[in-house]
Design a protein that fits this description.
CATH architecture of the largest domain: Orthogonal Bundle
Keywords: DNA-binding, Transcription, Transcription regulation
Distance between the termini: 46 Å
Number of helices: 9
Largest sheet: none
GO molecular function: DNA-binding transcription factor activity; transcription cis-regulatory region binding
InterPro entries: Homeodomain-like_sf, HTH-type_TetR-like_transc_reg, HTH_TetR
Shape: globular
Pfam families: TetR_N
Structural class: mainly alpha
Number of strands: 0
Protein name: TetR/AcrR family transcriptional regulator
CATH topology of the largest domain: Tetracycline Repressor, domain 2
């Protein structure tokens, strides 16, 4: 088997395990499903599940690496003349246009799963903190004052966190994706406009 085929097989297995686990969690609740039950339903061993997902929470939040790296990546690749805030504002609206789940836009069952589990919400907060830390690292690496960089990262990721929570709550209540996107777009415009007064020129390339 070629390396490319092996990698594809691993990705497919990982996705199948995550999909199976999420379905069971939505049906029965996160705390009421065991790793052994997930393994049996997915047709793999318990060890295979834990090899792919050392933490049970990551069976649900299975794209955490992409999630935590996204904001730092948007800033690191911004064009000349663009500030960090402008890059992250642009990134938010691009993701919103795609109705990205990374913004908290979800099906009602999935939103209820997250909101109903303190363990999953705790993991979301951990990932959001990692987002903030990685964003601050990029800003500091560009030569900015360390405290100012951490403060800017906290303000901006705090905005993302607030909008994420709003999206989850409204998703849980069954608001359609297009209606929700309109609501989030208006809310994001207001809060980014307010941030612009303080951070509009911060870390401009």
């Amino acid at each position: 088997m070629s390396a490319g085929l092996r990698d594809r097989k691993k990705r497919e297995t990982r996705q199948a395990i995550s999909d199976t686990a999420t379905r069971l969690f939505i049906q029965r609740g996160f705390d009421r499903v065991t790793i052994a039950e997930i393994a049996a339903a997915a047709g793999v061993s318990k060890m295979t599940v834990t090899n792919y997902f050392p933490r049970k929470e990551d069976l649900v939040l299975d794209t955490h690496e992409e999630f935590t790296a996204a904001l730092a990546g948007a800033v690191a690749t911004r064009p000349p003349g663009e500030s960090a805030l402008a890059a992250l504002r642009r990134f938010y609206f691009e993701a919103l246009a795609q109705r990205s789940y990374s913004l908290g836009i979800a099906r009602p069952g999935f939103a209820r799963l997250l909101l109903g589990s303190p363990v999953l919400l705790g993991r979301v907060r951990e990932l959001q903190q990692e987002q903030e830390d990685r964003l601050a690292e990029v800003l500091i690496a560009e030569g900015g004052d360390a405290f100012a960089a951490r403060a800017a990262a906290a303000w901006i990721v705090g905005t993302y966190r607030l909008l994420f929570g709003e999206a989850l709550l409204r998703s849980r209540d069954g608001i359609g994706a297009d209606e929700l996107a309109g609501h989030l777009g208006r809310a994001a415009t207001e809060v980014f406009d307010r941030l612009d007064a303080s951070l509009g020129d911060f870390a401009r390339r």
